[in-house]
Amino acid sequence: ASAPAPEEALTGGRFRARWADGTASDVAPGRRVRVYWPEERRWYIGEVREVDGESGESTVLYTDGDERQHFLDEEAFQVEAEAPAEAAPAAQPSPQQAEAEAEAAEAEATEVAEAA
Known about the structure:
By secondary structure, this protein is of the alpha+beta class. The protein has helices spanning about 5-10, 95-115, and strands spanning about 20, 30-35, 40-50, 60, 65-70, 75-80. A six-stranded antiparallel β-sheet has the order 1-6-2-3-4-5, with no helix packed on it.
């Protein structure tokens, strides 16, 4: 089997994700990784599909569909940094709540005007 498509070919050489050096504790199914292939002198991107808890061997599915077994703790690899949590959008009031708030604000404005 041939090597997976290199990162540069997939991204035009401008990769936007942040990567951090990986450790064995970072390897989990669903985690995106970059594995360095020394014979190719390139990093290749994939997703961990399985991790054998006994042997530590991981199955990585590369972006071009190639699937390989790796002992990632014995290889140079990086993990995609977790994206920062997006700020939750402000809750929008229901139409009934918005109407009640508008009526309350109007009543308050009327009281202030009458008191003046």
